[in-house]
Please model this.
Amino acid sequence: MHAQLAVKTIQDALRPAPPTCGQCPAYDLNLCRAASEAVWASPNGTPLKIQQAEHSAPARRTICREQDLHDTVPIICNGWAASIIMLSDGSRQILSFLLPGDIVSTALLFEPRPHCLLEAITDVRYRTFRRTELREILFSNPELLDRLSRSWIEEKARDDQLIVDLGRRTADERIARLILGLVERLTKREMVHGDPLEFEFPLRQHHIADATGLTPVHVSKVLSEFRRSGLIKISERSLTILDPIGFRRIANMR
Amino acid sequence: MHAQLAVKTIQDALRPAPPTCGQCPAYDLNLCRAASEAVWASPNGTPLKIQQAEHSAPARRTICREQDLHDTVPIICNGWAASIIMLSDGSRQILSFLLPGDIVSTALLFEPRPHCLLEAITDVRYRTFRRTELREILFSNPELLDRLSRSWIEEKARDDQLIVDLGRRTADERIARLILGLVERLTKREMVHGDPLEFEFPLRQHHIADATGLTPVHVSKVLSEFRRSGLIKISERSLTILDPIGFRRIANMR
DNA sequence: CGGTGTCTTGAATACCATCAAGTCTTGTGG
DNA sequence: CCACAAGACTTGATGGTATTCAAGACACCG
Model:
């Protein structure tokens, strides 16, 4: 596999100015914003700004590999990404989809090795912070520590839910729950439009398959069935939930 | 369901003295030990010992429920427990088995609600620390913070592995990997005897089923097949791995 | 224009669940 | 101590869900 890294800071500088953090849909819940705004006391007493760098990766590009060592922690600014574990026979399991404002994994604050592949789904902009600095800042400020602990808890809760979904639910339930989980997270970021619920949906069916432990073929069949039942509509990389009540019923069959 | 809580500190006092922490098989990797030994500065400057209480629960008893609120964090001293998510149709998913020295979940340092059921598998002794105190201590001492971060990372890594196992592996692989994962953790605690590998194995087949997303019936069939192939032996609540190489091959089929 | 990636559909198959019956063990109360 | 009930495990028969295999339609891109 042709896994060229996508650190192209120089080219970025030549492109039209990227949106500022204030336009980030995750502005209010963003660790990145908090860290950027934070000022900390350096060892010699001078207040310092945290160092950061902005990067981008085109859709489908690998952002970092499982065995790479990094002294920086990435946070997604824009676009969708996925953290993925690959098996030797080529099958893949997506651990989580990363949306704007998400820290890739809170565990990265403590260890340099991500243990999973990070892949861009859409074009992605992301920011990296030096691990030691970021950790220092987050732990030295009670309000930031609180914010960190919430994202830690949320990360853990989503892992637990995924375990239950993969262990104990049918294909229909898994897929419906995946979509509703995304709706919830997108809603917090104000990336979902009103009634009926509609939002940008860049996932390919193979992404859904890799996230739900199914095959792309079966995902296709389930989604077709959802459409035939009038539950959802998918077109132009956009998803509409036509029957929220019926759809939630599928997701909560047990 | 008859889920009486098992906090019987008074009765405990009447029983023969429990083994000391020094005899805990997880002594060296134990957060509990570190916390117990730690001394911290109180608001008025006096050094304080952390408060803790010791409890016990008999096998099969619920230790705490998903909706309970606790201002304490439990750490297992002795015996096996499981954290479990229950679905409304009665099916269960075990998120993790808890062994001596394990903190139930690092997320409990930040939130009072466990989100999952905690159940004793064998008779269990456990210790509870006040959340605010424990957090304070762990975060104020760099060596303890390091220890905490390691157990956080390990917890995350095990969650990720479970997700992959449930999403992408067959029944044979899941069961073999569950057992080998336990061997690894028990070995660190010096709870595995030499060659051939043998150890106390208190899990019922329904525990294995709940942990691997299978049915007890199918677990029985797979284990029988493992025995017939001469890979393992189970008797008297004790498990022996007769053919480590063959068994690991099953666990790493992809 | 061929190539690649994406999605769909049908047929055959594998894996695991469900159902059912029976053995054996463990615990409990009379 | 025995009788009985409940839990744990096994085994076989049957069925359903999801996989695998295969072929074709369609869009997009260099």
Notes: Helices of chain B lie at 9-14, 31-37, 131-140, 142-168, 171-188, 205-212, 216-228, 244-251. DSSP finds eight helices and twelve strands in chain B. Chain B touches chain A at residues 85, 87-89, 91-93, 95, 105, 107, 109-111, 115-116, 139, 145, 149-150, 152-153, 156-157, 159-160, 162-164, 166-168, 212-213, 254 (CB under 8 Å). Residues 1-16 of chain B have pLDDT under 50 and may be disordered.
